[in-house]
Amino acid sequence: MSGSGRPRTSSFAEPPGVPDSGKVTTVVATPGQGPDRPQEVSYTDIKVIGNGSFGVVYQARLTDTQEMVAIKKVLQDKRFKNRELQIMRKLDHSNIVRLRYFFYSSGEKKDEVYLNLVLDYVPETVYRVARHFNKAKSIIPIIYVKVYMYQLFRSLAYIHSQGVCHRDIKPQNLLVDPETAVLKLCDFGSTRRPLVSLP
């Protein structure tokens, strides 16, 4: 199994929002940054936290460190390299969600392959923070706006310096940790590298 990136268990999809705290899934995954040295990674407490046309996002806990991670599972077209994976492997910034590992898994249909991106787990989004204040018939404190915008601009300055254009900036793609107020830009699925560099 070594180097194949295939999971040792079958699909880990569970009913939305219901953690599977009893099962430990072990996969052979490649680190997000650095050399391509596949290693075994185990996780548990798997539950669905989001889905859409792109695929499904799970929350899980790494068994070795007990850290929470998000696992974004997308159908892989074998004819093309996954642009999001290629770009995320090159990015390293405190205001960009970090790619920890990636691995491939088989789908239910024959020849169906999924790419799984193991990312930092950040519990909230700017969208949900804004909705919270809106429901309370209140406005977001200006200090939050300043702190979030400053970090967003830092992340954009960094990716633009790397020749990357995100193309999908929206509150749902701005993750925030309510305890630290750290913001991280996520979802590089629509990203492009411009063919011509602008002055």
UniProtKB/TrEMBL annotation:
InterPro entries on file: GSK-3, Kinase-like_dom_sf, Prot_kinase_dom, Protein_kinase_ATP_BS, Ser/Thr_kinase_AS
UniProt keyword Nucleotide-binding present: yes
Compositionally biased spans, kind Polar residues: 1-12
A GO molecular function held by the record: protein serine/threonine kinase activity
Region (Disordered): 1-41
GO annotations of cellular component type: axon; cytosol; nucleus
One biological process term in Gene Ontology: regulation of neuron projection development
Similarity remark: Belongs to the protein kinase superfamily. CMGC Ser/Thr protein kinase family. GSK-3 subfamily.
The species this protein was found in: Cynoglossus semilaevis
UniProt cross-references to Pfam families, sorted A to Z: Pkinase
Keywords: ATP-binding, Kinase, Nucleotide-binding, Serine/threonine-protein kinase, Transferase
Binding site for ATP: K73
Name the record gives this protein: Glycogen synthase kinase 3 alpha a
Domain Protein kinase, first and last residues per copy: 43-199
Superkingdom, taxonomy of origin: Eukaryota
